[in-house]
Design a protein that fits this description.
elongated; 1223 residues; mainly beta
């Protein structure tokens, strides 16, 4: 208690102190409030009485901040619950293009803040206006026209509590090509929590809207081009499409504290994406100095929804996370490309393929730092990464990746991986089962890699093990069963001669690399170069390779080779075929492979060489390059030793070789050289062959050949000499059999600067020719044959031949890479050559004898055939021998064009023309038209026709006897045969493969009309058949011309069919076969003998009949007159046999049988003569009495005769009846 009473005074003092403090605070507060009121009152009084101070303040502030002229027009100040300012126009800048303009502005301010220098707007009404915004060098936007240094300066004009009514306001955002206009409309009720409506429009219907109270409202975005974001902030990626969104917004002091909404991104244009729109939800949580943005889920750009989270710190720190289950890698490059380091920016412009799975991206940017730190962790799924810079292109990359801007770590696991590294290799690698761990770090200029171990399986059973350190690479690889054409897959782009690189890329056409082992140790940046401390060893075995060395070099085929590459030296030993030529042994070596100018390739070849395989190579030489068409053939064998030095640059290849021929052969068309032996030394541009021995056309020959400067101006010399067998010249077999003996010859030729010259001669005195004239000669004929020729090897060449028979000139012309014969001019006999035609053959001259029969006998089987060049000829012959006839002083001229002929001839014995028209199509027949004005056949020449044909050697079946369809139409105006003229003789015949069909042979000869047909079948010995009719009012002269003089006159008709072996002109009466039926009326037989002719006179009763029939011929002349004479003969073996020869006359009747010998013109006939014709009519034909008295014949008198002997004077002998019956 005592203590309590002791503390009472202290408590009372404390209460008194507190009361005094409260009273003092009240007084101070009252004084301050009074002072404030006094200040407010003073301000009101100041601005009420001095409003122009506010006008000057605004004008000075604008002039201070803007460098452009400031114009204020029609400005008024006043007081309306506070100071007010009204003006009609405010312009900053030029009147035409102002930086800032306001029209019809009404401003109302709070008075007290003006005393502190703060312009706090109470009300703002703007009818219309515009402002222009520009971007500075740092990428920040500011008002156009601001003075330098004032872009961030404060202009103390606050609109937060103001009532705003902005009707039409234009915001211009200029760009390099065009400007973007934004139309703003802003309505606000003002106060501490005003209601606001903001509407921002732009082109194509886009807009941004906000409606609600200050700090809380709804927003909507329509049609915003996403490309504007990159224009507003250059560090943002340049994307495409149109963005629309809407949602709610909570904000305070100009900062958003919460945002929730939905967005839709149409046509984003992501590379490789097929989506036409991206959708998602937006959520934002903001704080005083930081904020966090979440976008989840995002759909439309990947198979699975994505999510993203972004953390911001207002004081410069940026942090963010991004995650996705499956994301196309191209989308990552499109969006995150600007965030990559500068040395990776080229990658974002390339095409990427593949996906990133379970991706996590963390990024952060520290305050005051321009660099963005990031880390990517993901699982790669078959990525296709383009090759850029020193990095390889990868397709099919799979594994786990941890990537940062300066380093990475990759756990590689790819089933199939395509590697394209153009910096080091020319072609892509297709690898399999690739595994290993690779890490790398960027050292300002290149990557430093580490990998241990790295296992790779690839093409050709590739097995690769690699260990990569910061400085060293240890590589071991084995390759098996790789197609040779895939070798260029492993061809390096660096560290190898460019020429060798190009050659290796095209050389291997087919084959197999059976096995290859590679070992490498050294810095991996040096691969495949070989420095002092590096080591490279490659061993390879090739099988059945087809190797192409160069364009004009022969290919190597079926090549088996062993390759050894150690350091900078490459050695190859091989055997195979070169252009089909077996090569037993070849060795190739190359040095200094790591330099641009590698050492030359040295090659040696030793092998037997079949000459037939060498011909394609020879055709590529400068000499034969322009002569591709000659039918050149080589045979035999030679031993080849060849040494090559092949540089891989502009220098020429050096060649040194020897070809030792061993019984080789050369054939050019029908010309043949055999058993050629001897050495041929050659270099790249030179050939030297001396004393080559062999056989040419069956005789010994010696050849020498020298050539030099073959790669520049070719210079070649050739000599050929020897003796050939005349019977082995390349002529038809029928010609060869008529040539005998040997012909010595010598030929020399030079080829210099493309000009070819030939000189040669031959001697005929040791040979003989039995060919028909004019190509016949005999032994000891010393007339020489000389040849000469000259021309340009690649253009034209002329050859001239001089012989005893005449001279000829032949011309060839080059057509591109082919030689063609062009023209020829020939002269038979003495005289100059005719003018050379432009194309074709011209033949002129004269000769002694032309034995056409003998030349026909030498025609080859099937006729001459083929197409002839245009040939014109004009020849004079002293004699022309044809079918046993001899025509004197004959001129033959005409033309042959292709397969058509036109021929005219004239001589004292014959004149006419012949035309041959070849068939245009195979099914059509060719045609011969023969028009003969006259033809005289001499009897002395036609009778021994067969013997003349045997002497000529003409065959019975010439070449033209059968063949393709051929029509013959011949007409003879005058035919003189045996001194008698035949008129209007026509012949029509057709040829077929089986022979000739004679359609018609008509003519008039010695009063007889011939109408015949037949056939000529030349096969199997040949057979000619003729059938038809011969009619005449008086057949006597015709029979007499044929050697049959027994008939003086008579009206005759002959019918029959005869045949004989051989050709038509080969007929002989001894070989005739067939039948002939003859009917002769009202004729007279010449005297047959006195024993027969007297019967006419002892039978006067016949006169009565002759008188009654008015036939008075029995009264005149000698011989036997008859009414009818008929017979049927069977021909065979030169005999004509008949059993039915009948003669009826007024004096007698006769029936005969027997044989006529047509060879010896003999007869042997049995004749039964009935001389008493009158009694026979009266008694023999009387009924009953005649047969009873005279037998069944009814003849009163019957006499039997035997006629024998020649046709001219037969002997007629009477024989008894019994003898007649026996015969």
């Amino acid at each position: 208690m005592a203590d309590a009473h002791a503390d009472a005074p202290h408590q009372a003092g404390l209460r008194q102190s507190l009361r005094s403090l409260a009273v003092g605070f009240a007084w101070v507060s009252a004084v301050l409030v009074a002072g404030a009121m006094l200040l407010i009152l003073a301000a009101y009084l100041l601005f009420i009485y001095r409003p122009e101070l506010l006008r000057d303040y605004l004008r000075n502030a604008l002039v201070e901040h803007f460098s452009e002229p400031v114009q204020l027009s029609v400005i008024r100040t006043g007081w309306k619950g506070g100071p007010t300012v009204q003006f009609q126009h405010l312009l900053i800048g030029s009147a035409a293009h102002p930086d800032l303009s306001l029209n019809d502005v009404d401003l109302r301010f709070f008075a007290l803040p003006l005393l502190a220098g703060n312009v706090l707007v109470r009300e703002l009404d703007v009818a219309s206006g515009s402002v222009k915004l520009l971007k500075n060098a740092q990428g920040q936007w500011h008002l156009a026209g601001l003075k330098p240094g004032h872009s961030n300066g404060r202009f103390n004009l606050k609109l937060d509590p103001a009532r705003l009514q902005i009707q039409h306001f234009l915001i211009e955002l200029p760009d390099n090509q065009h400007s973007t206009d934004l139309h703003l409309q802003w309505l606000s009720t003002g106060g501490l929590r005003p209601d606001m409506q903001i509407h921002l429009d732009w082109a194509k219907g886009g807009s941004l809207q906000y409606a609600g109270a200050a700090g809380n409202g709804q927003w909507a975005l329509h049609g915003l081009p996403v490309a504007w974001l990159h224009k507003l902030e250059g560090r943002l990626p340049a994307l495409q499409g149109v963005l629309s969104a809407k949602g709610s917004l909570v904000w305070q002091d100009g900062l958003s504290s919460a945002l929730d909404g939905h967005f839709q991104w149409q046509h984003p244009g992501f590379t490789g994406s097929k989506a036409t729109g991206v959708q998602g939800q937006l959520r934002w949580q903001g704080f005083t100095h930081s904020g966090q943005l979440e976008i989840s889920p995002i759909s439309g750009i990947s198979a699975q929804p994505l999510s993203a989270r972004l953390r911001l710190h207002w004081k410069g720190r940026l942090q963010g996370d991004f995650s996705a289950k499956r994301l196309p890698v191209q989308l990552v490059m499109d969006i995150a490309g600007p965030l990559l380091p500068a040395h990776w920016q080229n990658w974002r412009q390339s095409s990427w393929h593949g996906n990133l799975r379970d991706m996590q991206v963390h990024f952060a940017r520290i305050r005051n730092s321009q660099k963005l730190g990031w880390q990517l962790q993901t699982r790669l799924d078959d990525l296709d990464i383009p090759a850029l810079g020193q990095a390889p292109g990868l397709d099919g990359l799979s594994g786990h990746l941890d990537f940062q801007p300066q380093q990475f770590s990759l756990h590689l696991q790819s089933r199939q991986l395509k590697v394209f590294w153009p910096r080091y290799f020319a072609h892509s690698w297709f690898l399999q089962k690739v595994s290993g761990h690779i890490s790398g770090r960027w050292n300002a200029q290149h990557w430093s890699l580490q990998a241990a171990p790295l296992l790779v399986y690839g093409p050709g059973d590739l097995q690769l093990t690699a260990s990569i350190g910061p400085q060293q690479l240890h590589l071991q690889a084995r390759l098996q069963h790789l197609p040779a054409r895939d070798i260029n897959t492993f061809l390096p782009n660096q560290g190898i001669s460019p020429a060798l690189q190009r050659w290796l890329s095209m050389a291997f056409l087919s084959g197999t690399l059976d096995k290859a082992d590679l070992r490498w140790r050294g810095p991996w940046q040096h691969l495949p170069q070989n420095h002092n401390h590096d080591h490279l060893n490659l061993q390879a075995h090739f099988h059945n390779v087809h190797l192409h060395y160069a364009a004009r070099w022969p290919d190597a085929e079926h090549l088996d080779a062993r390759l050894l590459w150690t350091g900078n030296t490459l050695t190859v030993r091989s055997h195979g075929d070169i252009s089909g030529i077996p090569v037993r042994e070849a060795q190739v070596s190359i040095g200094n492979l790591d330099t641009a100018l590698a050492s030359p390739l040295y090659a040696e070849i030793n092998t037997p060489l079949p000459m037939a395989k060498l011909l394609p190579c020879l055709r590529q030489t400068p000499i034969l390059r322009h002569a591709q068409t000659p039918p050149l053939q080589l045979s035999g064998e030679g031993q080849l030793h060849l040494a090559l030095k092949v540089p891989f640059h502009h220098e020429k290849t050096q060649v040194q070789g020897v070809l030792a021929l061993q019984k080789a052969g050369v054939k050019m068309g029908n010309w043949r050289a055999e058993s050629i032996s001897g050495p041929i030394h050659f270099q790249r541009d030179a050939i030297n062959a001396k004393n080559l021995q062999g056989q040419f056309v069956g005789g010994p020959a010696q050849v020498s050949l020298q050539a030099k400067a073959l790669d520049q101006q070719t210079h070649l010399q050739m000599q050929l000499q020897g003796s050939l067998q005349a019977g082995q010249l390349p002529l038809p077999q029928s010609w060869q059999s008529r040539l005998h003996g040997v012909i010595p010859y010598q030929v020399s030729g030079t080829l210099e600067n493309g000009r070819l010259r030939l000189l040669g001669s031959a001697r005929l005195q040791r040979s003989r020719s039995s060919l028909p004239a004019p190509f016949n000669w005999s032994y000891a004929d010393e007339t020489p044959v000389s040849i000469s020729g000259q021309g340009l090897w690649d253009r034209a060449f002329d050859l001239t031949v001089h012989a005893a028979q005449g001279q000829a000139r032949l011309s060839w012309k080059s057509e591109g890479r082919h030689w063609q014969w062009r023209a020829a001019a020939l002269r038979l006999g003495a005289g100059p050559l005719p003018k050379m035609p432009g194309y074709g053959v011209r033949i002129d001259g004269q000769g002694q004898v032309l034995p056409v029969d003998e030349w026909f006998a030498l025609l080859p089987a099937g006729g001459p055939g083929g197409r002839l060049p245009t040939t014109r000829f004009d020849l004079h012959w002293q004699q022309v021998q044809l079918l046993g006839q001899v025509w004197q002083h004959t001129r033959i001229l005409g033309e042959a064009r292709g397969r058509n002929w036109h021929l005219r001839w004239r001589s004292p014995q014959s004149a006419g023309k012949l035309t041959y028209q070849a068939a245009r199509i195979p099914a059509q027949a060719a045609a011969i038209h023969l028009d003969v004005q006259k033809l005289v056949l001499s009897p002395a020449q036609t009778e021994p026709l067969q013997s003349a044909r045997r002497a000529s050697g003409m065959t019975s079946s010439p070449a033209w006897a059968s063949g393709g369809p051929l029509d013959l139409d011949a007409h003879m105006d005058h035919l003189d045969w045996r001194g008698h003229l035949a008129h209007d003789v026509s012949l029509q015949a057709e040829r077929s493969p089986s022979g000739w069909q004679l359609s018609a042979l008509k003519g008039e000869w010695l009063g007889s009309h011939w109408d015949l047909s037949g056939a000529w079948l030349p096969h199997d010995g040949g057979m000619t058949t003729v059938q038809g009719t011969v009619q005449s009012h008086n057949i006597g002269p015709a029979l007499e011309a044929l050697g049959m003089n027994s008939l003086e006159y008579g009206q005759a008709r002959y019918t029959g069919k005869i045949s004989w072996p051989g050709a038509p002109w080969n007929w002989n009466v001894q070989h005739l076969q067939g039948t002939i039926q003859s009917h002769i009326k009202n004729g007279r037989l010449k005297k047959m003998g006195t024993d027969v002719s007297w019967l006419v006179y002892v039978n006067p009763t016949t006169l009565l009949k002759d008188l009654l029939t008015l036939d008075y011929r029995p009264l005149f002349g000698e011989g036997l007159f008859f009414h009818a004479l008929s017979a049927k003969f069977v021909l065979g073996k030169g005999l004509a046999r008949s059993q039915d020869i009948r003669l009826n006359s007024s004096a007698l009747a006769m029936h005969g049988a027997g044989t006529l010998d047509m060879v010896d013109q003999q007869m042997n006939l049995n004749l039964q003569v009935y001389p008493l014709q009158s009694f026979d009519w009266l008694l023999g034909d009387f009924p009953l009495l005649g047969p009873a008295l005279f037998g069944h014949s009814g003849k009163v008198l019957e006499l039997n005769y035997l006629a024998q002997g020649s046709w001219e004077h037969p002997m007629v002998t009477r024989i008894s009846s019994s003898s007649a019956k026996d015969k």
